[in-house]
Design goal:
This protein has 237 residues and is α+β, with helices and mostly antiparallel strands. The protein has one domain: Glutaredoxin, CATH 3.40.30.10. 47% of the residues lie in helices and 10% in strands. Helix 3 links the parallel strand 2 and strand 3. Helix 1 runs antiparallel to helix 9, helix 4 runs antiparallel to helix 5 and helix 4 packs across helix 9. The longest helix has 19 residues. The radius of gyration is 18 Å and the shape is globular. The two termini are 19 Å apart.
């Protein structure tokens, strides 16, 4: 395990993040306080909708991310597809996306996270997640990305009416706000950050750094080697 992956966050901090890992949106750009949450979304943290991987996977990774963060995009576009193939698809690891929009430096992040949580209510979080990161250079430069987000919704099969209704309730915004506050309270300061079974890996680490970490944890928890290298698994570099 590399220096960056050593235990850097106590179990108490991890528990805080887990408790809020249903998150909700850091307030809108006008900083208007969110209205009270009374509907179903207030009771459901949407954890399942933003979890990627088998429910029984022995390793859980909490991905603390900001949709407008360039390093988060690097991870999503370059590293996550390899992790998906090597660890998520085989049932070894599941990822839970945790909202942490850094609104002080990323003015469109709050709106993006609110939109993504509204998409999660429609069980379309991951298609929206992928499009937001893939097209980050487009919407991040817009003064008002709302129209672009609605076009993304249409592209993944979400009706404009359902997104509009979600935004009007303010529940997705409140969800992200609670989550972001919990993450900050747990001591996480940057994105992307990954809580891996009690340890903190900060930054968009390449696949070569992920493999020994996940392999060692998997073997410790299951008694099995994570990758059957004698089966000729081809590694991408």
């Amino acid at each position: 395990m590399t220096r960056r992956a050593r235990l850097a966050l106590g179990l108490g901090g991890v528990a805080v993040i887990l408790a809020v890992a249903g998150g909700a949106l850091a307030a809108r750009r006008d900083a208007t306080p969110p209205p009270p949450t009374t509907g179903d979304a207030a009771q459901d943290d949407l954890r399942d909708a933003r979890t990627k991987g088998a429910p029984g996977a022995p390793i859980t990774v909490l991905e603390v991310a900001d949709f407008q963060c360039p390093a988060c995009r690097v991870f999503a576009v370059e590293t996550m597809p390899l992790l998906q193939r090597e660890y998520v698809d085989p049932g070894k690891v599941k990822f839970v996306f945790v909202n942490f929009p850094l609104v002080q430096i990323h003015p469109n992040a709050a709106a993006a996270h609110e939109f993504a949580m509204c998409a999660a209510l429609q069980d379309r979080f991951w298609p929206v997640h992928d499009m937001l990161f893939d097209q980050q250079p487009v919407w991040t430069r817009l003064d008002d990305p709302s129209a672009y987000f609605f076009s993304v919704a249409a592209a993944v099969g979400i009706s404009a009416d359902s997104i509009d209704a979600c935004l009007k309730t303010g529940e997705a915004r409140a969800l992200v706000l609670r989550e972001a506050q919990g993450v900050a309270g747990a001591g996480v300061r940057s994105t992307p950050s990954f809580v891996i079974e009690g340890g903190l890996l900060a930054g968009a680490a390449p696949i070569e750094e992920w493999r020994p970490i996940l392999d060692s944890i998997y073997e410790a928890k299951t008694g099995e080697a994570s990758v059957k290298r004698d089966q000729g698994v081809k590694r991408e570099r």
